[in-house]
Amino acid sequence: MSTSETSRFVRLRVELVLAVDDEEAVTGAALQRIADDPDMPGEEQMHAQNAVTDDTAEALAYLVDPFDLVSEVPGIELQQASWSSERIDYDPGSPDWDFDEDDGGQDDDEDAADAGADGGAERAAG
User: Fold this and answer.
1) Alpha-carbon dihedral of residues 54, 48, 89, 25, nearest 10 degrees?
2) What are the tens digits of pLDDT across the range 76-105?
3) Contact (CB, 8 A) for 96 and 90
4) Can you tell me the distance from the alpha carbon of 114 to that of 89, in angstroms, rounded to the nearest whole number?
5) Can you tell me whether residue 81 is helix, strand or coil?
6) More confident site: 34 or 109
7) What's the N-to-C CA distance of the chain in angstroms?
8) Do residues 31 and 91 lie in contact, with contact meaning Cβ atoms separated by under 8 Å?
9) Which residue stretches of 1-126 are H helix?
10) CA-to-CA distance for 109 and 83, rounded, in angstroms?
11) Contact yes or no for 116/122 (Cβ under 8 A)
């Protein structure tokens, strides 16, 4: 049997480029989410507060949750998720930003390692 016939697991990739128009609003919302999290230990909460205050990309990583994207989809259960956020130079006219372009089969692990090496914020759930 082929993988598509035997596996019930599907990888969904989503890439977003966001323009942050109000860094204070983003940071404030992230700080509120951290404060409202009853499961986050005090030391981790202090570290998270410092991180989101220092970097808007880190604040976005606390505000964006992949579970929210799929929680209302019937017949699925989120097994694992990871996401990252980083500041970038964005030129919508550049061919580097063509979302329809195939990456040439580059290894996903290499892509994830490269994103983390850029100093972007990253969170994982699962």
Assistant:
1) -70
2) 999 999 888 888 888 888 887 776 655 544
3) no
4) 16
5) strand
6) 34
7) 28
8) no
9) 3-6, 23-35, 42-54, 56-63, 66-70, 108-117
10) 13
11) yes
Evaluate whether 59 touches 52 at the Cβ level (below 8 Å).
yes
Q: How many residues does the chain have?
A: 126
Contact of 31 with 49, CB cutoff 8 Å: yes
* Separation of alpha carbons 17 and 106, rounded Å: 21
pLDDT in tens, 30-62: 999 999 999 999 999 999 999 999 999 999 999
Task: Compute how many other C-beta atoms are within 10 angstroms of the C-beta atom of residue 52.
Answer: 25
- Among 125, 100, 103, 116, residue whose Cα is nearest residue 39: 125
Residue 79's SS3 state is coil
Q: How far apart are CA 77 and CA 95, in angstroms?
A: 36
The rounded Cα 110 to chain-centroid distance in angstroms is 16
